[in-house]
Every structure is written in structure tokens, then in C-alpha cells.
User: Fold these one by one.
Assistant:
Number 1:
Amino acid sequence: MTDLIQGGHHGNPHLETVMGTVVGIDVRDADAPLEAIDDVVRWLHHVDEVFSTHDPSSPISAMGRGELGYAEASEEIREVLRLCESVSRQTNGCFDAFGVPAPNGTSLETSGLVKGWSIECAATILEGHGCSDFCINAGGDISLRGRPSPGAHWRVGVRHPVEEHALALVLEVEGPLGVATSATYERGAHIIDPRTGQPSTTLASATVVGPDLTLADAYATAVFVMGLDALDWIRTVPGYDVFLITHEGTTHWSEGFSRYRV
């Protein structure tokens, strides 16, 4: 899990329970309109209604059961499916929304990309309202813009997957940036390797940092499945870096990741 641990002068973030987690929306622009947060909240609940694989009545659940065809689906569903297909090809099947079990009993599970995509879209909504300095934290998937205050950096902590209540590292960053972590500490070995159908157990934690949270979120799942091979794969993805922790507590990171560490 990644989390905002310090952002200069503390604002008063809005906390919203949605998508099975708590989303913190921390806007630092002094002139941010009140409706900006309202629009983001409406958007996130809309995404939950459409893409929840825990809700058998959601459109994505209907699609997984074959009751909703691609041609009849909304443009946002088609966009997400296209992104999932693209990431699956790019990761050689280590991310595959079409071949892993979902809570609704189907084999269509887009959640590994949807949360990052929805938060990245929420950031675009805030930018549309003129906001330039903010953080959106969706249960550890974080989208950042600008700075928390003039001259300051956002500080993001990555929870240690082996040592309870400890941080594995702290990042000092400015936006635009997305930070996403896939790990086993809360739900155990729950990330399925689509190539084998079995839980992936090589890593305890995989953090991806890059300019777009949509991809950082999906890549974090894929990198977790790849294991240490991700260090070679990430070199083919310009702008993105990884930090990996094994169950033995050893750490490995890509060359560019060092610029984010405190």
C-alpha cells in the first residue's frame, strides 16, 4: 500500500467511501470551486455502479455473464476494455482482465485497471475546474498534480509488506505522477498469474511510479506477477519505474526509481 504521509501545509482533504475503499481528495488550490469535489465524488460513485465486480447487477457483471455485448456497452466500458487489452499485450499476458476470476463468478475482472483509470479521470475533472495542486489517494493508488505548497514536495510512504507498521521507503515527488502498489499484506496471495491460474507468490510488494495512474495501477499488478523479471521488462516502458520487495525482505528497483526516494 502507498499512502500520502506528508504534503507540506496540511489541507482538509475530503474523504469518500467508494469502490470498496476510502478515497482522499486533497486540493491545495486556494481558489478551487466547491463543485470540483462534488463532481469528482459523483464520478467515483458512477464508476462504482458501472464497474463493481462485487455487484451482480452492475453492467460489467452483466458483460462478464455474456448478457451485455460489446456493441451495446457504454463508451466508458469499451474504453476500459480497450485499455485492458492493450496492457495485456504489452505485459505478455501478466495482466489479463479477461482470464482471472472475479467476485461475481465471471472471468472478466477489470478492477486491476479501473481504480487507477477512475482516479486519473478524477484528476482530469479537477484540472477542468482549474485545480493544479492536489492529491487523490484511493486506498493507496495515488494521483498527484503540482505541489502541496510552494517549494514543497508530496511525501508518499510505501508500507513494508513484511515488517508490520513499518515503511519500506518514502518517496518525495511532484506531479503529474501516479504511484501504485500491489502487495500481499492485506489480502494474502490474492493476485492471480493469468498464465497459470495460480496465485503469484514470488514478490511481497511491487510499486510502480509513472506519469499516468491508469497504467501504473495495471502495471503494478503485472509486475507483481512477473517477479524480478519486471526489472528487465520495465526498461521497455519509458517513464515508468518499479520498486520490488521479496518475501525475504530483499529490495530491488529500476534505475530511474532512485530519483523519487528520500
Number 2:
Amino acid sequence: MTDHVKLIADMGSAARTAFAKLSGASDAEKALALRASAGKLRDDRDLILQANRSDMQRAGKSGLGDAMLDRLMIDEERLESIAKAVENVAALPDPVGEIIDRSAPPNGLVMERVRVPLGVIGIIYESRPNVTADAAALGLRSGNAVILRGGSEAIESNRAIHRAMVAGIAAECLPADAIQLVQMTDRAAVGAMLKASGLIDIIIPRGGKSLVQRVQDEARVPVLAHLDGICHTYVGKDADQNKAIAIAVNAKMRRTGICGAMETLLIDQDYPAPGPLLRALIDAGCEIRGDDAIMELDPRTVEASEEDWGTEYLEPIVSARMVQGVDEALVHIAEHGSHHTDVIVTEDQIAADEFMRRADSAIVMHNASSQFADGGEFGLGAEIGISTGRLHARGPVALEGLTTYKWVVRGTGQVRP
């Protein structure tokens, strides 16, 4: 029987040693190692795609849903996107060592706040094998060591991607233990990670509600997370009809299984063209669960339950409600949202500014699809996840979000009176 506590303790100890070695690596060395890893991902294309086909076949037989299968699947185009994301991270400025601010009090001391890595990061995730490369790249670039624990459904894909990433960084003489993958797929390994205080500095879960809830309930290590991606699109009374249709359909249907997908559509009762908006979604293959006013507009809609307003479907389903103005839209979002991404569609700049000022969300948007809630789209190269909390980091978490700071104080012999 595997001793999961010892396994994670050994990995944590190796990660701390690797972290110490990374502190001596230059910006250029880390960037070069990631470019080598991206090249190795391309070199190992056939092996990675074969591993993913094995995962897909097993997941299909187990009854995994379409949205989760979409998250799991890698084809040549997606693999190239994974490699490019690693290269994009390599091209980003290294945040480590950045002077956040500097002050010089009258006593002659010079006080600086300087960015430093978090340390050893445990990342627990489901389905998406691209997270293996994204997390490894972001961790290394920001000077952190990472311990990765992916879902059992993606184990072969994760192993193949991990091998390529490690080969790339080892070829450039950086420590291989800076990127470790937990090879065990049972849940006991997760529990051991959550209790590895002193070995793991922070846990980042990326997956479904049950996973994130477990991490938050059991962790003895700080957690950076979001529970749900219950994203809203509010179509104001002054919205442009063409924009409203294009944004709503894209926000729901481009990829239904990502956390930035629209789950609830709010339509202002004074918006003049709600019917065409609903028809466009239904014609695109979306089921609409609406309130009474919505159901009167199109007989193909079905009645929404109270539970629907707080559901992250991750499928071609959306809940829809008519609301009276910005105030009622914001009340609904506050009661049922998850502080992830919320959108207003309107040509009224005053209403847009009010919505974006008052919406308590990590990301707020005006006249844009919520599917842009992605670290790559924000120019961050890639992301570990999207944080909906208030401490340390919020929104897409990338290089800067994987750092903290220390105070560096320079004197010339001063003593305190």
C-alpha cells in the first residue's frame, strides 16, 4: 500500500531543494528552459496525442459528459496552442526582483518592497491536461517549484506533457524536481497535499465545485481558488441588437465547458428585441430555462427552477430572466453569482460605468463576451486559474499572482533611538 503522506513529504522536500536552486537561476536561463520545453512538447507530439487518445477512450467508456470530454481532448491544434502558451510565458518579463515601491524616510534608510516567489505551490486540477504545461511554465518562470496533481481521467496525457516539460528544463540544467507530477490517481494523495504544511506553501485547486470545496474545507495550507464560474450577461435597455446577439451566443456557445461561459442571461424589461436574442441562442443549440416573462417570448423555452439561478451548467444550457434596470440586475448577480465574470451590453456609457463600478466580480466587462476571461487573452501568457477571492490575487492568476514580496532595507549604520 502506498504511503501517500511519505510520498508527498518526499516530493515536498525535493521541491524545496529545487526552489532553492531556482533562486540562483537568471531570467535568461528560465526563459531558455521554457523555450526548450515548448520544443520538446512539439517533438513529443505523437506520444502526447496517443496518450490523450487513451484517456479519451477510457473517459468515454466511463460516461464522462461532453463538456468534460471537451476539456480533456487534445488535438494537433490544441497541442500547438499549449506549446505556444509555454513560449509566451518564456517571453514575459520576470517579475522576481521587481521593486514594487521605494521610500526614503528622514533617517536615511532606503526601504524597498521587492517581488519574490511564493515557494512550493501545490496545484490540484481536473480534466484539462493543458494545465500541466501552463502551471509548470508559470511556476518555473516566477521562480517557484510546483507539485502537480491532475485528475485520473487525464493521467496519461498529464504524464506525457510532464515528461516533455521536465526534459526541456533539465536540458538547460535547471532542477527537474522544480516540476513534479503526482503519479497516483487516488484521492488520498490530494488529502496528503492539503495537510503538507511546511512543505507546500500554497494550494491552487482548479476544477469542479466538489473538488474546490473539499480543498477549502480540508486544507491546512493557504488556498487560492474559485468555486464556480456563474457568469452573467446583462443586456441593458440601450443595447445594440446585433452586439447583444453576437455577445450572448459567443459567451454561451463558443465553449460551454469553460469557467468563463455565460450561465445566466439577464434582459432588461425595456430592451426592445428580446425575442430575436432568445431565438439566436436556441437556434445555436442552447436550451433556455427562463422565468414567466421569458417563457412568454418563445414557446421553446422551459421553466427555470430556483436552483437554476445558481447552477454552473458547463453545457449548452442557460438560465434567463427579465429584470428592471441596472439595480435589479446587480441584485440578482449579488444573490446568485460567484464573483467570477459579469458583463453588461449597452450603448449607455453611464449605465455601463455604474454596472462596472458596483458589480462585485473579479472581472467586469462592457460590450464583450465573458469568454475573454482567460489569462492568455489578458496578455498574461497563461493562467493557473481565476481567483474570485479578495486576498493576494484576483482574476486571472499568472506570474505576478505567483509572487509575494519582502522588504529590503538599506542603511549606512543607522540605529534606532
